[in-house]
Structures
1.
Amino acid sequence: MSAQVKISSKRIVPEVPLKGLETLWLQVGGTLCNLECTHCFISCGPKNDTIPMMTLAQVRERLEESATLGVKDYYITGGEVFINPEIFEILNLILRYGPLDVLTNGTQITAEKARRLQEIQKASRHPLRFRVSMESFEESANDAIRGKSAYKKAVTGIGHLAEAGFSPILTITRSWEEELDGEMELQFIEFLRANRVPQPQIKILPGFMLGKLAENERPYTDEERVTEACFENFDITQLQCATSRMATGEGVYVCPILVDNPMARMGNTIEETLRPFPLSHPACYTCRVTGMTCKSST
Ligand code: SF4
Ligand code: SF4
């Protein structure tokens, strides 16, 4: 049974404890992105500077703090991380602290950048991994969501990463019925093989009815909320917010999903966020129902 918290005269919601801070996310790309995907749950795009990119100095500050709190691994995301002008210095710095997963749309990765990434990996004792997001192994279906030429550029980026010895994990937001996952997975693995990725892997994410997806498809309904009953047979500490936090250029948030939501901003520093969080947002319902985590391994 989870702890409860009263958030209004009519609503009591479960509260997720912070079991231990294992993972630190850093939104180094802010909400800026070179693409404008029709399902982006934080509505990132070339003009969205709601949350600024993180500077190297800000990243350093959060890393120094994380080292005192026992963080084991790091993830960076955006927006698009490769439009941050300090990205290579940021990668070098994070890898001094621990393993790093980089979430990217892959469209900015040239042969020259991939070679620099290879050098960075060679100089580090910690692994550097990439997750490249796409929608489909078919160009027209991919570009209908991600925009013109996004497919060709991402495939080129994946190829450069593979040539540099990386095995990028392909990340896809599910746009098909869940029972077709197995079939889709095989096709995506085949797509990666055809693009010379040494160890093909994919990660399928559920859609969050937020941002562009809420505008273009539908927002959450009133029934889609977590309640005490949701955690009768589910360990609440399996949710990723029980073991991670999300640092940005303007504060620390509970998780990567609610990063542009003021109620999810828990403090200015990580230290200020070391407390339970009330699961009052409808997106928490998606996490509970799908058991999803933004991390690469599960
Ligand atoms: S889904 Fe990813 S690639 Fe697409 S606009 Fe959002 S941040 Fe950019
Ligand atoms: S959206 Fe998911 S990860 Fe974020 S606070 Fe809610 S349950 Fe936790």
2.
Amino acid sequence: MKYLASLNKYFWKYRWRLGLGIIFIFLSNLFGVLTPQVVRFAVDETIDEVTKSHNSNTVVGNVFAHTILWTAALILGLALLRGLFLFFMRQTIIVMSRYIEFDQKNELYNHYQQLDSNFYKENATGDLMSRITEDVSRVRMYVGPAVMYVINTVILFAMVMVVMWNVNPELAMYALIPLPLLALCIFLLNSVIERKSEKIQQQLSTLTSAAQETFSGIRVLKAYTQEFLTEKFFEKENIEYKRRQMSLAKTESVFFPTIFLLVGLSTLLVIFIGGKKVIEGTITPGNIAEFVMYINMLTWPIASMGWVLAQVQRAAASQKRINEFLSVQPDIKNPTEEKSIPKGGIEFHRVSFTYRNTGITALKNISFRLLPGEKMAVIGRTGSGKSTLASLLTRHYDVSEGGILIGGKDVRALNLEELRSHVRVVPQDVFLFSDTVSNNISFGNDHVNNHTIKEYAVHASVANDIEQLPDAFETMVGERGVMLSGGQKQRITIARALISNPAVLVLDDCLSAVDSKTEYHILRQFNQLLEHKTAIVITHRIFSLLHFDKIIVLDKGSIVEEGKHEELLRRQGLYYQLYELQKQEEKNTL
Ligand SMILES: Nc1ncnc2c1ncn2[C@@H]1O[C@H](COP(=O)(O)OP(=O)(O)OP(=O)(O)O)[C@@H](O)[C@H]1O
Ligand SMILES: [Mg+2]
């Protein structure tokens, strides 16, 4: 239950709606409880008239005109009123639960967005999704229906108790004895049903994934003539599925008979004990009719308590999972609302970084300084720590040791949003949204017009490719950009970064999927475009075409060489080796 306490803030938020709902529940039950009393009156009155009168014809006429007709009308009226308030009750409480569901989804989504890379590495996407969908809707079953049924049962029970007690306390007791037993039975049956349904669900997913794998690998299967084997496997799983379904059906078939048995028992007791009391003269026959109706009225609300209990348990488990995520605080937080970024260059001061999850030290004691407007290349073999360097600069991770300064100020003290728009990284793993090409380019810059978008597409040497697409710039790129080639995607992300016109641009291996001719074009553009910008170009290829003020060569997380192109070549170290290798490759491909 303690997990569900975190939902109280929502109940408080919607307290007026909830309060109104409770009033409606009260009213609907009030009209409900009045009905048996009208019936009691009708029965007693009829019996009275019959015993008083001797002429059977006048009796029928009298009784019908005086009692039955208008009590029937009254009962109808009460039923209508009750129905009306039941409608209002659902309109307030169930609608409240939808509002809470809405709020909770938003709360989780906003929280997700604040969490950092570490969180996303440690938790699977499927898990994130299921908490925001399935778990939230299970919680809704608690804040809506479960709460509604509990309040309803409590109010109805109290009302019925009062009227029954007034008639005859002893008879009231006998009538109520079987009901707690009913609730217990339903709870137990419900738990068994839940458990069995869960098992069926598991088996169903085994079955579907077995089928899915078979069909997606059908060509291999047929080629190796293994149909028989998978058929056997599928049949075995299917038999298990059937067995579990049958077992559930058996439990479910006990459900209703149990309810009717216990309700019947209650009715039997009332008629038996009540009958004796009528003979004694303590109660009237109408009271028996009334009691039987009360028992029937209580049956469903009490029976629903078993269901409610199961729902509350599920909701608590779900809320626990939701709270787990909500309580995660991002390591990387925005330290200040002060938006300005100090002018000046970038400095890495003895930076070391170890990935928390793998324990891999990706960068060791890295120091360099880059003045505004300077261009730097970071070169190194795969796994040498180049991308890590970019992630640290924009605080996707924080350094383990040392510090990164912009304009002399530590990045950890700068406004996070400003920092990330000051330094734009074109990441190595391109990502396009399933939207149009132009929206993918203008992403986050709503004010740019189509003309500008085209201009930047030209800068990134991708305009020609885009024009070839069926709807040119308005083409939908498909999920993650499946419609496009790797190189086209890369260049679109370059255009995306350029259009936001950042002061510092970091290009992480962004030309790996383009051919050397396109590379040549882009690099020529870069010479102009980056003229007044600070740029860090991460690459494992050496671009002799671009002028770099500084080149650092990374190996296993450390800077092994540093200098300008010619100096590094003269040194005949790792840079020289990489360069020679590249020249060889280029010769071979020509
Ligand atoms: N998210 C991560 N979690 C844990 N370890 C990581 C993560 N990303 C990278 N590493 C490790 O850090 C080291 C440096 O990786 P990094 O991605 O910076 O290399 P890189 O120089 O960019 O390589 P490439 O040229 O292949 O892109 C590698 O040993 C890698 O295994
Ligand atoms: Mg990389």
3.
Amino acid sequence: MELDEKLSKARDLVEQSDFVRVISHHDVDGISAAAIITNFLRNKKKGFLCSLLKNVELKSIFEEENELFIICDMGSADIESAEASGKNIIILDHHQPLRESKSEKVVQINSHLHGINGSSEACGSTMAYLFAGDLNLISFMISGALGDRQGTEFKGLNRRLVDEALEKKVIDKKMSLIIDCYDNKNLQRMVESSIAPFFKGLSGRSADVVKEIEKKSEKAINSFLLALLIEQGCREDVIDDLIGYVYRLPLGMSSQELYSLLNVCDGLDMAEKGLAMALGDKESYEEIVKRREQYYKRAIAGLASLEEKGAVKMEGLQYFYCDDLGMSGLYCGIGMRYIFDQGVPALALTNTKDHTKISARGTRYLIKKGLNLAIAMKKAAEKVNGSGGGHDIAAGATIPLGMEEEFLMEANRILKGPYDQV
Ligand SMILES: [Mn+2]
């Protein structure tokens, strides 16, 4: 079935229903996609119940008594149980699908099935936005794409939709520094309170040196910050992220601000607050802003100590222990991009009561060289009776306690390359 045909079939299903069960993912893209769908349903005066879930099987969800389900930013992996449920289900996904839907009742709108690359040209929110067809909801398409790291200039379908909104003057864009911080009072405070980029020796500490630079031209400021990142060993693909487009959104905040607030919601397990904010709840907005400062402070302190301690190097990987499970993915991702050696992926290990949990992160540079952390984590974890998987650039594993050494040896064996022999 063509994309347009699927979209109109899905819209018909909504028209015929009074109540829709919405399921989406817990991360920034998932919350953004849910924001689009729930705003759309509210405008249509439809009842809905929305849950934001971490990776789960949807089989039990499909057992609920509902006339219509909309699944965002996931669902394609559950195509079999969707079809078996006999329910009306709309899937809006951008993860690699297993196959087309064979059921009349399951409308699977997945970018990949229509020649659109789901890692670089469309995210879950893009598919939700395409379905809703409401320019006023473009804010969330953009935050979703930022959340899934699809650039700020955008490509493919993302670009087409953003260009359309620019042309109609619903949004505008400006080239700008992109600093993910909690205090943007002045440049010095931005550098001091920034988690991405993490400026070695300055973020989380006093960045007095920046004071002088602040008086200079925008160009001089940009080159100064770029030089800092080069000096601390960041590679081109990471440095490129420092400057990009920031969009002014109809929501009344910048794309960077919306992304940052939703990112906090994901990190602090309060995705529902992010959705409430997206539906216009002021109190939720204020609470998220307040919590963001605490969260960033905690993150920056952790990153500064990670910078001091460093990671343990092996031939094919580097690792560190992190006792804060909720922060391990963030530390690992930011550590990988701004603190550690750029030549091998980073792993964070956390011992919980029952298991050792591992977060693994790479860079776009390593991916180009053939790194695939999803496969490496899966294989190394299975070797020690654990499980693992994820994406090429970001993956994770859970293994039995006390098996770290064996796991690290096997991961190192796989990751020391050459990657194409994995
Ligand atoms: Mn996504």
4.
Amino acid sequence: MTADVDDFVHTGPGTLAGKFFRQFWLAIFQSRDLDAEWSKPIKILGENLTLFRGTSGKVYLVGNRCAHRGTQLSTGIVDGEGIRCIYHGWKFDGSGQCVDQPSEPCSFADDVKIKSYPCIEYLGLVFAYMGEGAPPSPPRYPHFEGDGVLFSHQLVRPINFFQNLENSIDEVHIGFLHANSPYDGNINKHVPLIKTEETGFGIAQYGERESGPMRATFYQPPTTTSWAQAPTYPEETGWRDMLGFRVPIDDDTHITHTVTFAKVPPEKRDAFMQRRRAEWEELSKLPPAEEIADAVLSGKMRFKDIPWRGNGADMTRIQDRIALMGQGVIADRKMERLGQADAAIILLRDIWRREMMAIRDGKPPKTWANEMPPPTSGVE
Ligand code: FES
Ligand SMILES: [Fe+2]
């Protein structure tokens, strides 16, 4: 166990950063990938777990091993609101309580319990609370609940989550790394002046460009960010509102759950969805983004020669992957030389350090508002 308040990257049980994470609801899975009476193995914050959806449609998160002789519980059979181990039939309910031991003449099921964490579903994602005691109020993003098209996307990167979190509030990189990506209003052609402040919900970052209004991007602990993204298809009437949740699988890998709220009038939604499906189908025929990133990282392709793909929708993902993997699996922050453009990253680390210090010293951490304002594009 580490008590280093500058160690943001290790998040297993017992670490300070792990304790910080475990104060919040965390996005862990895309709801539509888990049908009723299905179970999946899942790893979050270094903990191996079993996620299953009961017959009623409710989602549960319990330990990964059967308490009997330890086989992988996600291979079990979902039975009502519980899961039955395939090996000798012990059944566990959604709270992890053993409720049936068909192979035992004298059941001692009452004495057997595996761990469990509460789950909720919101905006097409499953959220879990992995901390102790009663969970806080779940997050709310009212501007994602309006009339539009909502969809989510998952991306696993074989690097520590904190690099991706820092990247998501690094406004300046848009002008360099993403100069060859689709952004309206030429916001990727100007280097902004960065202003940032701590707020009741987290961090507000403002990117001021000579060319136009302020672009506002927001951060909410532990790893949620909200930003505006250029519309991709002609059916959209404005910039997309985006939410990103960066959640460690373990210290060397993380998953990003992105939620997109696209502004599409009802009569154009079919066309929009069709175009989106066609785009993804087209992309699936091309070399995977990971392959292109690896080609650049290994020197087989130049960054500037990355081919334009489809309408360019995945260019930013490839470019980000290269820059973030280029920092190493866990970036060495001791060799950095930070400047004014890194104001939001410095503030982010100050907040994490302060909160982890409070946890270490047994003092109450800050209570954060569970809503964030809508981001602004810097164009409209
Ligand atoms: S290992 Fe699960 S019931 Fe025996
Ligand atoms: Fe980026």
